[in-house]
């Protein structure tokens, strides 16, 4: 009877662990869905709740962090610990010696205490197989997203598809060129379109070289969506990011002979598809607008070199040169965000700096602010190195391709803006998760008497060791 009871207990514990892991993974998927469609809720469907919906992902992230912490599922990381300490200190200093507004301080601190840990939640719960599933989902979603931004591009700002946050009839588009506006897609602001298709790009290129399990028509549709989105978005950042992804793909393909033929075929197909799409009225007109925007911006920002330095370096060097004039503990965390400026002044303005590093150092001061900057740079370099080593040793290019989008996004992405913050932490988590083997998902099925009582992470470590 005792042995029977023991076996029954083990079965219950195994099923409980499986259900828990499933719920936690579903929580990550919910975080992604809210990231993609939070803007749609705020603009079209739940307009009276537009303000509280701005932080709709926060409870999901907080629940995931608490459960993972209780179950000891986190993979140890110095960055997690240091960023938590900085977040707590920043919250205290903001209220005591900074701007003094507790609501602004809490809004700013949640970036480091709630959303940043999501990188490690995804790393701990997802494996390479889950990252592939995210990619397949992105391929499917990109097709209707392309249709939506095309409608927004060619519709007046007063149209329903262009409604702003809270149902604002003035429109959610942002100034582009030739009287056309940059479409926001399902997002609250137009940067969401750029961020979405910037993540889609690495997946499209990866699946062209690794098409197993992907329907050809879906991959073709997603490829067309990416190419059409570049001119429709009127986003130079998306163009540059796509070119970076192509260069990463060419490097990965050239380093592995089995990809050489596929790489040539994929690039040839892209050139043909671009030529065909450029002759259509929808894409052709958008290309003309995009080129006009490109020329106008280059003239005002000092050419392509100026655009690159401003967009991708974001005045990072300038952030260091101004540290001597800042208070030791900064002006207060949260003050540099749009929500912080609204609560403090009643209007949206850059109270500290427009660039991410300048905002971070201005809010937290030279000591804590530079700490955040160095942590982000260190993590970017680390993920780049690990993905390169995996590419060289195993030929697996998944993490390498995702790094093409994530490297700069993690290092200096605009975390003060909720959509950019969400994409930054989510893609970073995907990179680290893609470095993990799929065997972790099957450990619950091989539990024995020695491991049935352990939480999932300890079971994993025991079997791996």
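^ Assign residues to that structure.
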């Amino acid at each position: 009877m005792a042995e029977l009871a023991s076996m029954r207990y083990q079965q219950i514990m195994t099923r409980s662990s499986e259900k828990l892991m499933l719920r936690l993974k579903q929580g990550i998927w919910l975080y992604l869905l809210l990231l993609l469609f939070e803007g749609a809720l705020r603009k079209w469907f739940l307009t009276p709740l537009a303000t509280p919906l701005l932080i709709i992902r926060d409870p999901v992230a907080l629940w995931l962090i608490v459960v993972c912490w209780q179950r000891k599922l986190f993979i140890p990381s110095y960055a997690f610990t240091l960023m938590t300490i900085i977040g707590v200190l920043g919250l205290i200093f903001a209220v005591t010696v900074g701007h003094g507004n507790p609501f602004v301080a809490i809004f700013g601190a949640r970036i480091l205490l709630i959303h940043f840990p999501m990188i490690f939640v995804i790393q701990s719960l997802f494996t390479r197989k889950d990252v592939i599933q995210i990619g397949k989902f992105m391929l499917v979603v990109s097709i209707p997203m392309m249709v939506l931004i095309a409608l927004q591009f060619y519709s007046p700002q007063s149209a329903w598809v262009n409604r702003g946050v809270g149902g604002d009839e003035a429109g959610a588009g942002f100034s582009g060129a030739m009287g056309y506006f940059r479409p926001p897609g399902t997002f609250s602001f137009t940067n969401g379109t750029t961020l979405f298709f910037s993540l889609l790009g690495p997946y499209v290129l990866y699946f062209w070289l690794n098409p197993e399990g992907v329907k050809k028509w879906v991959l073709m549709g997603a490829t067309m969506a990416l190419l059409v989105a570049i001119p429709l978005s009127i986003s130079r950042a998306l163009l540059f990011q796509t070119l970076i992804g192509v260069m990463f793909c060419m490097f990965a393909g050239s380093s592995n002979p089995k990809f050489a033929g596929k790489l040539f075929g994929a690039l040839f197909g892209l050139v043909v598809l671009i030529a065909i799409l450029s002759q259509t009225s929808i894409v052709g007109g958008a290309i003309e607008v995009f080129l006009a925007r490109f020329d106008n911006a280059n003239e005002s920002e000092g050419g392509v070199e100026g655009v690159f330095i401003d967009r991708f370096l974001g005045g990072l060097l300038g952030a260091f040169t101004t540290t001597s004039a800042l208070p030791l503990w900064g002006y207060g965390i949260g003050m540099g965000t749009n929500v912080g400026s609204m609560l403090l002044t009643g209007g949206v303005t850059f109270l500290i700096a427009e660039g991410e590093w300048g905002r971070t150092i201005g809010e937290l001061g030279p000591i804590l602010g530079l700490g955040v900057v160095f942590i982000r740079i260190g993590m970017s370099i680390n993920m780049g190195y690990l993905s390169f080593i995996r590419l060289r040793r195993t030929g697996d290019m998944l993490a390498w391709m995702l790094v093409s989008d994530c490297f700069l996004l993690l290092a200096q992405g605009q975390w003060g803006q909720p959509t950019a913050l969400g994409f930054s932490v989510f893609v970073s988590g995907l990179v680290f998760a893609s470095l993990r083997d799929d065997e972790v998902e099957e450990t619950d099925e091989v539990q024995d008497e020695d491991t049935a009582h352990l939480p999932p992470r300890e079971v994993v470590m025991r079997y791996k060791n």
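Residues 440-465 have pLDDT under 50 and may be disordered.
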